[in-house]
Amino acid sequence: MVELKPSTPTTRLLPVETAGVRMREAGFGPLTLVMPYRGRDEALAAALEAAHALDWPETGRMTGTTERGILWFGRAQALLIGLVPDDGLTAQAALVNQSDAWAVIEMQGDRAAEALARLTPVDLRPGVFGVGHTVRTEVGHMAASLTRSGESTYMVMVFRAFAHTAVHELGAALEGVAARHGR
Q1: How far apart are CA 117 and CA 119, in angstroms?
Q2: What tens digit of pLDDT does each residue of 73-128 get?
Q3: Residue 183 confidence (pLDDT)
Q4: What stretches of the chain adopt beta strand conformation (E)?
Q5: What SS3 class is residue 41?
Q6: Strands laid side by side in the 62-64 sheet
Q7: Average model confidence (pLDDT) across the chain
Q8: Torsions phi, psi of 26, nearest 5?
Q9: For residues 4 and 15, which has the higher predicted lDDT (pLDDT)?
């Protein structure tokens, strides 16, 4: 009998290091989309604070960390990262498990922004897109979420089905950066 083994979207694709930038899979654990019911925004924010000690994120921002936090994920939507949502949140919001839906790639290194700039229309300069900023955008023509989680660290989320393409596109952009700087 064939034994199936669970795998992540980027199994056998990552980690990779090019141009001084390391790409690795960010293992978050649970990912839950949180969408407040109409008129329940304040109650949800209070429940989130009480249950997980996290503030509801402002538009384009993240609160907490990439290991245990919540990031803005669109109008009236946020993504809870690394936490199983407390049962108290269900009275205030619709919760949808997204754990298997996304490939999450962390890019870390001084030239990560330079490589990403080849693939996304987002202005990644530190004064514009600082640590804790997040945006829904495209990366190499793929729908994505892009978050700056550190001074030279970015989290790229694409749908699981695009994991291979994302790693390829990001790798090609890094190769271009390496060639430009003479490796």
Answers
A1: 5
A2: 999 999 999 999 999 999 999 999 999 999 999 999 999 999 999 999 999 999 99
A3: 67
A4: 16-18, 21-25, 31-36, 62-64, 69-74, 77-81, 93-97, 102-108, 134-139, 142-150, 153-159
A5: helix
A6: 62-64, 69-74, 77-81, 31-36, 93-97
A7: 96
A8: -90, 115
A9: 15
Which neighbouring-strand residues pair with 112?
none
Q: What secondary structure does DSSP assign to 36-62, as a single string?
A: EPTT-HHHHHHHHHHHHS-PPPPTTBE
Q: How many residues does the chain have?
A: 183
Tokens of 84: 């199983």
Q: Is the pTM of this model over 0.70?
A: yes
Q: Hey, what are 180's tokens? A: 């430009």
Dist. CA 51–CA 87, nearest whole Å: 9
Position 17: which residue type?
E
Tokens of 22: 């390391």
Q: How far apart are CA 80 and CA 34, in angstroms?
A: 7
- Residue-wise over 4-38: b if at least 16 C-beta within 10 A, else e? eeeeebbeebbebebbbbbbebbebeebbbbbbee
Report residue 153 as tokens.
Answer: 């660290």
